[in-house]
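Sorry to interrupt, but I need a hand with the structure work. Can you supply me with one protein entry, sequence and fold together? No commentary is needed, just the two lines. Leave the record below and I will have a look.
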Amino acid sequence: MPSTENDSRLFIKSYFAASVVDAMERARVELGPDALLMNTREAPPEARHLGECEVVFGIRPPAPPAAGASPAAVDPVADLRQRMEELREMVGRLAPGADHQPECPTVIGEELLKAGVTRALAAEIEAAVQQRLRGRGVVMIGRPKSMPAWSTEDLIRETTEELENRLEVAPEIGRISALVGPPGAGKTSALVKLAVTRGLAAGRAVRLLSMDHYRIGAADQLRTYAAILGVPFTLAETTVALAQAIDTAPPETLLLIDTPGLTAASIEEFGQDLAAFLRGRPDIDTHLVLTASMRTADLQRTVDLFQAFQPAKLLFTRLDETDATGSMYCEAARTGKPLSFFSTGQAIPEDMEPATKARIVECLVRELPQAFRAVA
């Protein structure tokens, strides 16, 4: 059953259902048009059996008139109605119309869910696509599961543009760049690929630096790569030594810094010094290296864990191991951090490419044409 709680000012009620639209429909029927939409989110694990989506509404409970007061002076929802008017447009993006007929087919949200986009974000994107089409003056007709009077091209174009608008890319590195991330993410290989594609291929001097003196043989691996490439290598065992290596390097040299793979425990044990150092050096372009095959929940936890390092960009590896980009998209949209590069295999330097919106979004919309035809 829906959960409720009261305070002296506002009656709060949560509705759980299989979709945001279903939950909002129930709330509108029970609470009426004066209810204030407060939040939409995925249901917490303990309430998941009630439905995968939670919608929270608020409304003032009716109060008995005070003695001698006029009805207008004691209207319990007057101020709430005034605020509701200011929020009508926002609510209209998420809620069905007054006749309770959805204005957009649910197929967009369903396909985004299948592609790995979270339920809340999929519902938000579908509502935004609906708003985009409404702004174009397209007449909307049809039942929830049927195709309205839009062409497939219209739907795919607007969905693609909405997805791209929520995503940023920045395929570039600073003169001083550091790669941080969890163990096994592929930081060292990515660093060497960047040294070739962004340094040597452009005729720039390159120097490789490593802070990874914790794993046996880790620094030796990068030292070997440096020898093959014919570039200098420096192992810095402390942040003081790293700062000295950076500050004494020739001013035009591309400096690429490898760091140890860190877990929550190792960050707490010895990673705080490195995190503080990177936070205090705005001249260092820090990229968080992540694997493309990570689940959305795991990816979010990892990004939040490494927020202590204040990475400016996200760099994804192992795109050759998965064709799903939903979790990557969700994290880029959630954090607002741009994607920098994609590592697509083990070959050096061939399997490194600049991040593009098309690479991510095409995977999210590629099943839409078939889905639209199925409900036409």
Notes: Residues 1-8, 69-74, 89-105, 138-148 have pLDDT under 50 and may be disordered. Residues 176-355 form a domain with the Rossmann fold fold (CATH 3.40.50.300).
